[in-house]
Design goal:
- It is built from seven helices and eleven strands.
- The chain has 239 residues and is of the alpha+beta class.
- It folds into two domains: 176 residues, Immunoglobulin-like, CATH 2.60.40.10; 39 residues, no CATH class.
- The strands form three sheets. The protein has a five-stranded antiparallel sheet. It has a four-stranded antiparallel sheet with strand order 2-9-8-5.
- Strand 6 and strand 7 form a beta hairpin.
- Helix 2 packs across helix 6.
- The protein starts with 11 loop residues before the first helix and ends with a strand.
Amino acid sequence: MPIRRVLKSWPHLLAASAVATCLIAPADQASWKNKPVAQWNEEDAKQVLADSPWAKAVQLRIVRDLSPDERRASGDMEADVGKGVGLAGIGLLGPAKAREAIARAHAKPDPGKVLVRWESARPVRAAELAVKDTDAPALDNDYYTIVVYNVATPKKWNLANELKGIAALKRDKQKDLKPSRVLIVRKEEGLANVIYLFRRSVEITKKDAYVAFSAQIGRLVLWQVFFPQEMQVQGQLEL
């Protein structure tokens, strides 16, 4: 299956809308916000790891099926073949049955959500230590590290290299920051933790209104907007 670059550009209006929503939303009452990191208890740590400025449950989307012309142009007629429409879909059983068959062929199951976490942030590491999270990856301090947890992942020998080419951190009026490395930690039932490493030589600062993480894994597309203004502890930006 050829990987398609469906994430070439970031919808700035969506990001602007997200910023506006963030500004008008009511204050978060999470208990960890009013404590130094060293005083976080287990419940504080769980909040930080599950739903915080550094961790979000992200809805997955499925890339559409390629048309026959697109498959032919790719040189792989088996690429992204969706469900066939059968005899009903070509009208042999009447127009109503044809419409039903075509609708079934284009229907996509809900791929669900995955946890996306800004892993290299100090609060995340402290929270993982507090709950004794053995799933947390080792870190290299030269990189911003983002992890997509428990995502369905195809088994391909060059998958990590492919994923590296179709992921990015996007900021307003800035060049996209591409990952230097992608690591895949295989788990059970076809799932994996996918680890994206972005060099810290490109600095993300409090002045950045947002940082949008976008990625495609197999036929699954995801994106999550992070807000540096929220990703602070006692005035210190934590990435």
